Amino acid sequence: MKKFILTISREFGCNAREIGRGLAAKLGVPFYDKELVDMAAAKAGINRDLFNGADEIRDKSEKNLLNSFSYGSSTSFYSEKAVTAQSDVIKELANKGESCIFFGRCSDYILREYPNVINVFLYASMDARIRHMAEGYELSEKAAEKLIKRIDKQRHNYYKYVTGKNRGDRDLKHIMIDVHEFGTEDVINIIYNTVMLKFGK
Questions:
Q1: Side by side, which strands form the sheet with 5-10?
Q2: pLDDT per residue over 91-113, tens digit each?
Q3: Contact yes or no for 7/38 (Cβ under 8 A)
Q4: How far apart are CA 101 and CA 32, in angstroms?
Q5: Where are the alpha helices (DSSP H) in the chain?
Q6: How many C-beta atoms lie closer than 10 Å to residue 199's C-beta?
Q7: How many angstroms separate the CA atoms of 87 and 77, rounded?
Q8: DSSP letters spanning 56-90
Q9: What is the CB neighbour count within 10 angstroms for residue 24?
Q10: Any idea which of 33-37, 48-52, 53-57, 78-82 has the lowest mean pLDDT?
Q11: Cβ-Cβ contacts under 8 Å for 178 (sequence gap 6 or more)
């Protein structure tokens, strides 16, 4: 199989992280997620303690969830030094010999001139995302909707700041999939089959 790079961007609350991890396992490639933030923070000299990014969220209060899902979107990451560090980290990993998947962090834009890249955007209806967050994090539907809107706004603003583009625009996107319409497993299979069709020969 030829070397490939997948980037996955998403609307908040559509189970995209589970899809990314499942896809990485099926393809047998590294999945770069919050490690990108840690590496960029270290490179830019940002104090890791300024934000909470634990994968396992024990305290499911609204405030703690907001902090956890805002991981790497604090004002500290808006500096030119931090943006450059993030770009450098992603390019360094992309330049390695192995195929891989990047999750978020404007990677579709940062790698826009790289060959053998497929950019995926995952989304779902607001109702579906509210249900997913309410059930998964023991939130009321009102609290889930509030969290979704805040995180989506933060991520949109950050993407706009770094790229000058809107996060959900078709520009730079090769595949856009409604996760609620197909379900997690089928979305993994759709992207897997696309990779095999394009790079598996």
A1: 31-32, 100-103, 5-10, 117-123, 175-178
A2: 999 999 899 999 998 999 999 99
A3: no
A4: 6
A5: 16-27, 34-44, 62-69, 80-94, 107-110, 126-137, 141-163, 179-182, 184-199
A6: 17
A7: 12
A8: S-----HHHHHHHHTTT-SGGGGSHHHHHHHHHHH
A9: 21
A10: 53-57
A11: 123, 124, 125
